[in-house]
Amino acid sequence: RASDEYYQENGRVPREKISEQPKYDIDEYWYAIHVLQTQYILQIIRCNSVECCRPWRSNYVSVFPHRFLSALVPFERTAYGIRMAEKDYQRGQFYGSLFQ
After folding, report:
1. pTM of the model
2. Are 23 and 55 in contact (CB under 8 A)?
3. Residues 34, 54: one domain?
4. CA distance linking residue 65 with residue 67, whole number of Å
């Protein structure tokens, strides 16, 4: 199509003509160590290195040894205690299923 060709030629400014630097300088290594992003949550957690982050002031690492919170999992109470649900049957009007 002619309109598609026009857009490809004139719609975007070539990268070499842009003199601005990127707005954010993202350290990919820092991101990989400190950030976990899933569909439902963005977690930014300090690491265990004292050179990078301050020491922990609580027993958080003993409770969550992998530092990040676990994924959302539907559970149910049974006669044997709490266990992972096989079906997410308590869907509400405003919330979807975790099994989607």
Report:
1. 0.49
2. no
3. yes
4. 5
